[in-house]
Write a structure and sequence with these properties.
15 helices, 18 strands, four-stranded parallel β-sheet, Rossmann fold, alpha/beta, Arc Repressor Mutant, subunit A, about 375 residues, 3 domains, about 20% strand
């Protein structure tokens, strides 16, 4: 695209709901030109300060389980580190050596070995489904299974093990709780409902569920759902993350590889595709969330001007009356002079007055190039 030097996300505003790795995701988005609104919908309880994790660790040391499942590298490492800080590191290591130790995939297996331990078995790829299949295939009736978690358990995992007769002990590394300051979340909800944001990103199912729950508490759930269903794409890192949103009828998008980089690349393709270029007065015009790209150069436009421009672009080449533009103008009342004022500022912001024609006594129109202009432009 002509605006590559400014990044494919130039002119778009994207919400980030992540707590962990929010800085990394925000930096990637900004590197491609996006403006970022960060509102962590959850906060992570540090393992070393987590009294529930301490209590569960003590229970496992006192009564060694038959099976321990390491589900994530970062979670397993932090569990070992927290136990060392409590003075129980050697006891936990001895407990894990005595149990059948399974790792969800290469990442978790690497963390197990870095702790001086050895996994009994691990699938070749990160697959909790394969781990669960192996356990159920071996039989878990009457066995005690400790499941190290990173946030919420994989859907159906605990239920399947208990239904098969296992006693499941959940090891809650990195528990998530609502943020202490809810103001950023409330602003993100309002900005999404007002269509100020062009997309919202989600990197965990609990983060998505937390956002929906907070919107419900504030009586804003219907407004939030309306925006996410129709106008503001919900971009998820993977299909599991998308489940709480899909349960509310929200269509989501996610990359084939469940990582932050592919998530950003997906947005780099998805959002510009929603803003097709228009040939106007010999220029290439792309209307985006808070800016307009004119021949690839971002031109920031105020909300009032953007409302007028989008109204014109819905029928490029047609004359749009002042009365119709007034209805599109936020908070304008009944004075058509507000349209003239906002239009003058819009033309100044675009830096090219010829992009918008004034049609005397009728209204305004985008100066669509003749080759692209419909026959009924002034009808």
């Amino acid at each position: 695209m002509d605006g590559r030097r400014h990044g494919p996300l130039a002119g778009f505003t994207i919400g980030v709901t992540a707590a962990r790795r929010a800085g990394e995701l925000g930096a990637l988005l900004q590197g491609y030109g996006a403006s970022v609104v960060h509102a962590p919908t959850l906060r992570i309880v540090p393992p070393a300060d987590d009294t529930e994790l301490l209590a569960v660790t003590g229970q496992l040391i006192d009564d060694v389980p038959d099976v321990v499942v390491a589900t994530t590298a970062v979670g397993f490492r932090d569990w070992i580190e927290a136990a060392g800080g409590w003075g129980r590191g050697e006891e936990l290591s001895a407990c894990l050596r005595a149990a059948q130790l399974l790792a969800r995939g290469p990442g978790a297996a690497g963390a197990v070995r870095a702790a001086g331990l050895r996994e009994t078995w691990s699938p070749g790829a990160e697959s909790m489904a394969e781990v669960l299949g192996r356990l159920l295939g071996e039989g878990v009736e009457g066995r005690r299974v400790a499941l190290q978690l990173h946030g919420e358990p994989p859907p159906g995992c605990v239920e399947s093990l208990r239904a098969a007769g296992a006693e499941v002990v959940v090891v809650p590394v990195h528990r998530w709780m609502p943020p202490e300051d809810l103001a950023p979340v409330d602003r993100l909800i309002d900005a999404t409902a007002a269509r100020v944001l062009d997309a919202v990103t989600f990197t965990s199912a609990p983060a998505a569920a937390s956002l929906l729950a907070r919107a419900d508490e504030r009586g804003r759930l219907a407004a939030l759902l309306g925006a996410l269903r129709h106008d503001v794409p919900a971009a998820c890192v993977g299909p599991v993350t998308a489940l709480p949103l899909q349960a509310h009828g929200i269509d989501t998008v996610h990359p084939e590889r469940f990582r932050l980089g592919p998530l950003v690349q997906l947005l780099c393709a998805e959002l510009p595709a929603r803003s097709p270029a228009l040939p106007v007065a010999g220029r290439r015009v792309e209307i985006r969330g808070h800016a307009v790209l004119v021949d690839g150069e971002p031109r920031p436009v105020a909300p009032a001007g953007m409302a007028l421009l989008k109204a014109l672009a819905r029928r490029p080449g047609w004359v749009v009356s002042r009365a119709e533009l007034l209805r599109a103008l936020p908070g304008s009342g009944r004075d058509e002079h507000a349209v003239e004022t906002a239009m003058a500022r819009l033309r100044t912001a675009l830096g090219e007055p010829r992009l918008i024609h004034t049609v005397v006594k009728r209204g305004y129109r985008l100066a669509l190039d003749p080759a692209a202009e419909p026959e009924y432009a002034d009808a």
